[in-house]
Design a protein that fits this description.
With 531 residues, the chain is mainly alpha-helical. The protein is built from 18 helices and eight strands. The strands form four sheets. A two-stranded antiparallel sheet has the order 1-2. α1 runs antiparallel to α3 (48-81), α8 packs antiparallel against α15 (385-414) and α11 packs antiparallel against α12 (340-349). The protein is globular and about 75 Å long.
């Protein structure tokens, strides 16, 4: 029998490192392309203030980039240390996107990031802009390949289980890359990163405006963040809707859990705006429904059906019974690889093998399971409904809130109205919100997949390594201490860079440097004549 304590602690460790790593990823994704926009303006206009703006935000990008790389490496080690059977089971599929990510995207970033920081006086304007664009491209390609791998775990297409090697093997790498779940997750995640960066730039710019410092930089950065953020926040909602639509065909249980939909409703199903999901009573108390909305969003029609949790559990029970036949055929193949009857039976039922494996949480041999055990295994396919329900609403609510914020900021920027104190304070206060929304989104994505580490193929509790709780606790404590120190260092460096502000142009000295009438000791970053 599986030691579930080891499994749960391994899950906790991976969740902690993954969520910590994802504190840095969104800002890296968004700020990289904002640097491209700012430097493009500098190249087109020749106004040195845009060079100063680009270099300032580039410094903050660099601090964040270093921490993101260092924390990402730790995650990949855990596949071998804590999830060894998972690594064996999916290595043929999962290894390829990770290898491509390392060879192409990571080295692309590493090659050009040094040139971006140290090549300002050694490259032409267009040459340096090209370097900055390549850094942004490499950063986003890294996300693409990671999300291709993660998307395959959510919807394992383009691969099949080989009973002779006992692992998944690629049948179509094209299908793996263009997996609809992976593509939807990529565009949605990247857009969320763009929103994060826009909120960060808007908030820091608002802080400068409140303090009366670096006003020219702050106003220009505010305008760029408003426009970039408005486009990004609109795309997040649209692409999030597309990501949700992908669940209708590929992850029905996750969709039902997100909506706390315990029973199938007549089409089109209503959307539960708020409520209190109850896992024990298998109902949602005090639910407020919006008629038809869920059915229209999930199926793009008035007649499409969205199945409820109870009906999906019944489907899971049927698949478990078919999976037992597949498990029996597999055991006969292992005993006699030349058993043609067993191979034929396995070929007919292998799609359900993973469901039979769910029984190993309760019995050593799935073939010995009784009806009560099968029913218990079927209900184990239901994820944590209350967490998914509220995490999704937090994420979605933040998305619509950002649209309103950026729309108002864009309106202010078009009117050159940067004196709304209440809005500037709001922009500073909401800086942490996109990170909170992103973490909520990952909770929805990953908890909604449970109890599977590979949807329908491999239960999470069978994927862990045979290690001790003491070993896991040692690494958790070590990572917590190390990452805690790194977090303090990173925050202090970011705050110090923000307080210091942009570096003065070396051509400006003493009396030649323009001053702010409201604060004569602080330079105003006004444009210089064309070079």
């Amino acid at each position: 029998m599986v030691d579930l304590a080891v499994v749960e602690m391994s899950r906790l460790q991976f969740a902690l490192t993954a969520m910590y790593h994802f504190l840095f990823v969104p800002l890296t994704l968004g700020l990289s392309f904002m640097l491209v926009i700012m430097e493009s303006i500098y190249v087109m206009t020749g106004r040195p203030i845009w060079r100063d703006i680009t270099r300032f935000w580039g410094k903050l990008f660099g601090i964040n980039f270093v921490l993101g790389v260092s924390t990402g490496i730790t995650m990949e080690f855990q596949f071998g240390t804590n999830w060894s059977y998972y690594s064996h089971f999916v290595g043929d599929v999962f290894g390829a996107p990770l290898a491509i990510e390392g060879l192409m995207a990571f080295f692309l970033e590493a090659t050009f990031v040094g040139l971006m920081f140290f090549g300002w006086d050694r490259l032409s304007k267009l040459g340096h802009l090209f370097v900055t664009f390549m850094v942004a491209l490499g950063t986003n390609l890294s996300a693409l390949w990671i999300l291709v791998a993660n998307g395959w775990m959510q919807n394992p297409v383009g691969a099949t289980f080989n009973p002779d090697t006992m692992r998944m093997e690629v049948t179509s790498f094209w299908d793996v890359i263009f997996n609809p779940v992976a593509q939807a997750k990529f565009v949605h995640t990247v857009s969320a990163g763009y929103v994060t960066a826009a909120v960060f730039v808007l908030g820091v710019s608002a802080w400068y405006l409140l303090k009366g410092r670096h006003l020219q930089l702050a106003r220009r950065s505010f305008a760029v963040a408003a426009a970039f953020g408005l486009a990004s926040s609109l795309s997040v909602v649209v692409l999030g809707d597309e990501s949700g639509y992908a669940l209708t065909d590929n992850q029905k249980m996750k969709l039902a859990a997100i909506e706390a939909m315990w029973h199938t409703e007549p089409a089109p199903a209503g959307f539960t705006a708020v409520g209190i999901p109850d896992m024990e009573a298998r109902t949602t108390h005090h639910a407020i429904h919006v008629p038809y909305v869920l059915g229209i969003i999930a199926t793009r029609s008035l007649t499409g059906e969205v199945k409820g949790i109870s009906e999906l559990v019944e489907t899971a029970e049927t698949r478990i019974r078919l999976g037992i036949l597949a498990y029996d055929a597999l055991e006969r193949i292992k005993a006699n690889p030349n058993d043609k009857a067993a191979r034929a039976e396995f070929a007919e039922t292998q799609a359900h093998l993973g469901y039979a494996q769910l029984l190993k949480r309760f019995v050593a041999d799935p073939r010995m399971a009784d009806d009560a055990t099968i029913a218990k295994a079927a209900w184990s396919t239901v994820p944590n409904v209350p967490v998914l329900f509220w995490a999704f609403r937090l994420m979605a609510g933040a998305g619509f809130f950002f649209i309103a914020v950026f729309a108002f900021a864009f309106w202010l920027a078009t009117r050159h109205d940067f004196g709304r104190t209440w809005f500037l304070k709001l922009a500073v206060a909401i800086i942490p919100l996109p990170w909170i929304a992103s973490q909520a989104g990952w909770l929805v994505a990953e908890l909604g997949r449970q109890p599977w580490v590979v949807e329908g193929q491999l239960p999470t509790f069978l994927a862990a390594s045979s290690i001790s709780l003491a070993q896991i606790w040692t690494t958790i404590v070590g990572f917590t201490l190390l990452y805690g120190i790194l977090a303090v260092v990173m925050v202090r460096l970011m705050l110090a860079a923000i307080r210091k502000g942009p570096e003065p142009d070396p051509r400006w000295t003493g009396a030649d440097r323009p001053r702010d009438a409201a604060a004569p000791d602080r330079p105003v970053w006004q444009p210089l004549p064309a070079e």
